[in-house]
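Per reviewer request, we include the raw input and output of the structure prediction for the construct analysed in the revised manuscript.
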Amino acid sequence: MTHNIIENRTTRRAFLGGTAALAASAVLPRGVIGGATDKPNSVINGVRIGAITYSYRGGPDTADYTLDCLLKDGLSETELMDGPIRSFAGIAGGGGRGRGKGKGKDAEKPAPPPVSNADRAKQREAQLAKCAQLRKLFNDAGVNIHIHKCPFGQTDEDIDFNFEIAKALGCKAITTERSEQQVRRLAPFAEKHRIWVAFHNHTNNIPTIEDIDPLMRVNEYVGFNFDIGHYVAGTKGKSPIPVIEKYHQKIISLHLKDRTADGGNVPWGQGQTPIKEVLQLLKKEKWPIYADIELEYRPPQGSDAVKEVAKCVQYCKEALA
């Protein structure tokens, strides 16, 4: 596979359809958008600013609480963690805001008794109907669920169900942690359902820049959920901008956070992650990449997650002015 293959892909540009009217919009607080609606709008000069709901960990792991946090921060875009989805739709298992790694409240509950195939099909049909209701709840409030992060099960049926959840929620993609084994396992399902799987990097599994990254050799529906803060920490201070420039047509979303070259998580503007420059690049190139705030640093005394995310939103607004 050559670099030209990546550069010549154009299918993702169709994703911009319908956003032209929002392209010049800036973040506005609730209740003042056009004077006629209280829906949020966090498309700032064409850049879709959102948040992964992991940012609001520590509060109730419910759809209502999560939506309220997003609305308080004026966000119209989100990557929704599995906790609110499971609690609203009655889907067992998972790890809630702990990134689906078995550390949440559901992980302590005993496994449900086995059910027949027919009963399981009815159960999942009802759960998907609830997911559609969850989508309507968020959409009616003005929030688009562009990605969900429910952990993938082990069976083909479980994996198919996760993609059906994505469809019911109106998602462009599902995010999961980067793993070469997972890439091979999930790629055929992504192609079948035409829903992207966006693989998230940490400090020890960053995208390859010197050659074509192995993820890019799979199929059209395998891409990146590129964490620019982890990249800076994992490379001891290198800029993530060359990665974005090289793979922009395969990057579904970014995780925005500020980290130092020695691995610290710090309030925005105090580290070495070029958040402003990255946002300006998205604005200049008009790439349809979601830019999701991920609150990693500890809120200072007297503050909380909602207040700190609001600071990050303001940072984005100023960076994109």
